[in-house]
Specification:
There is one protein chain. With about 270 residues, this protein is α/β, with parallel strands linked by helices. The strands form 3 sheets. Strands 11-10-9-12-8-1-6-7-13 form a 9-stranded mixed sheet, sandwiched between helices. Strands 2-5 form a two-stranded antiparallel sheet. The chain has a two-stranded antiparallel sheet with strand order 3-4. One of its GO terms (molecular function) is electron transfer activity.
């Protein structure tokens, strides 16, 4: 990539297939080994947005992820879907990271990549649902950011014009370099072709350890040691069976109101 090429970084999180994953109720944790890893669904929209911009402006798309070594297959999927380069941050010292430590590691990796014009993230992940990592990365890099982007109306090498859904749709301008997080409404991700999949199988996924980031980061801020918060336990709500009641007679309305009040549904 030359200095004048447009460079887009897409942050991707490998997540377990939530329809197949199991929860260890006794330990209160998600058994991530119980289901295959896949690209977080919202990150597919981020990657598609990046590829569409690359098709318009040219340049390069780099996918960056922090995950265990098994996630290399997920990054190959990102390459099959249009990423030109993939970087996997994997090291035991990254383990146990909360959103702050995760954002710090990802921001450090972006610094190591060098020049960039735009960072695109999914609005949230299906296994965490915090929506914090994208904005935190932007703050750590000192760049402007817009969250919950539902439409990219205009894109140049200097700025983006986007619609952000913050309770109501707002038309906003982002000067580059900057970061956006996108919702599932922003586009429909394309499916990779067989040719793309075969090409991705031969592609190189760069693997970086904590030591590889030591020249741009404080490694003590990675993983558990850099996390001021921890998930103590994951609770799986019990399934409740549906029940029904039939009210008849002249006082049926009064009985219905009384039943709703007992359930706390009327105030």
């Amino acid at each position: 990539m030359t200095d004048n090429e447009f460079h887009i970084v897409v942050l991707i999180k490998p997540v377990p297939d939530m329809e197949k994953v199991r929860f260890d109720v006794e330990k209160g944790v998600v058994d991530r080994s119980s289901a295959p890893l896949e690209i977080n669904p919202f990150d597919l929209n981020a990657l598609e947005a990046a590829v569409q911009i690359k098709e318009k402006l040219g340049g390069e798309v780099t996918a960056v992820s922090m995950a265990p070594p098994a996630a290399e297959s997920v990054l190959r999927d990102a390459i099959a879907r249009g990423a030109d380069r993939a970087v996997l941050l994997t090291d035991r010292r990254f383990a146990g990271a909360d959103t702050l430590a995760t954002s710090y590691a990802l921001a450090s990796a972006i610094r190591k990549l060098g020049r960039f014009n735009l960072i695109i993230c999914g609005e949230k992940t299906v296994d965490g649902d915090t929506g914090q990592v994208g904005p935190e990365v932007a703050e750590m890099l000192g760049i402007p950011h817009i969250a919950y982007v539902t439409e990219i109306r205009e894109v140049t090498k200097e700025k983006l014009l986007v619609v952000s859904e913050l309770g109501a749709p707002y038309l906003m301008e982002l000067k580059l370099p900057g970061l956006i997080t996108v919702t599932k409404d922003v586009n429909k991700p394309r499916l990779p072709t067989l040719k793309d999949k075969l090409k991705a199988r031969k592609a190189k996924v760069e693997v970086w350890s904590a030591d590889d980031l030591a020249d741009v980061a404080d490694v003590s801020r990675f993983g558990f040691s850099g996390s001021p918060t921890q998930v103590v336990k994951v609770l799986v709500p019990p399934m409740k069976k549906r029940r029904s009641q039939i009210f008849k007679g002249e006082d049926a309305v009064d009985k219905l109101i009384e039943a709703l009040e007992m359930e706390g549904l009327l105030r």
